[in-house]
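Here is one record:
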Amino acid sequence: MSQHHDEPQARRTTRRAFTGGLAVALCAGRAGAQAPDAWPTQPVRIMVGYGPGGTGDLTVRLVAQKLAERLGQPFVVDNRPGAGGIVASQTAQHAAPDGYTLNFIAAGNFAMTPSLFKSLPFDPVKDFDMVSLIGTFGFALAVDAKGAGTTRDLIAAMKARPGRMTIGTIAVGSAQYLAAQVFRSKAQLDSEVVPYKTTADVVRALRAGEVDCVFETIAGVWPQARAGAVRILGVSEPRRFAGLPDVPTIDQDLPGFVVVGWNGLAAPARTPPAILRKLNTEINAVVAQPDIQQKFLALGVTAKGNTQAQMGELLRTDIAWWRDVIQQAGIEKQ
């Protein structure tokens, strides 16, 4: 008899334990779903595949500082230069997709590397969730102060001296080098592109007369242009750069020549969508601030955000565009 009473009692106890456990699990599930609202509760690391002090590094540090102010947690820039940004991207790829590791992405390390390396340890599209653009920039076509007056004049001079005039840029495979190759191809020039190690080397070569013109970031030649040592003939963006309103676009003299670089942020794939949305909203608010716009301009960059979908589309389009450019330039994969 007591046995019959004990069984229902045991079942009731088990049922209570199960429903209690279920309630705890449901609460935990709800808390987990709400966790992105609380994000960030600890410092956020931004992997940067370039050394400190470059344009990309400086722009992302400005954004990181503002994000820290707005979100109440440090955003720490972690520089891991090497292999065209691959080292930093790999570190971000293998990090937990929890919003506490982000990856600084640029046209160079994300859109161009798939066509420059035989194999990449990550897929820029599949292994990362896009967060937002932070800025766009063009490249400056510059000559010595005594050089040609316009892009059209320079092209005419180069055509008049086939095989004898040269274009200086930084390393083979850099965006500057590829911009020079696009220029050579569009203008149908018989001119060699000569690569140098650093921006300082490129500017020195131009001033020493080792090369006839250079393609470099605006920030890289702006100080020399202000000092009157070099002349910027044009910028590679589709519109004039706000910081150099008197300098025309190269496209005006060479229709169809447009090369735009960009910087942005991505997160490891499968990062919670709510965290990505929050980050996107905050980054767009930061890059719209007048002081950030001014500081970016001084670096030759236009501060600009976009949606996650637009960032994904920009990346896919650029990967395809650079693939064609790199193939046409005949650059062998490393």
About this structure: The first strand starts at residue 44 and ends at 48.
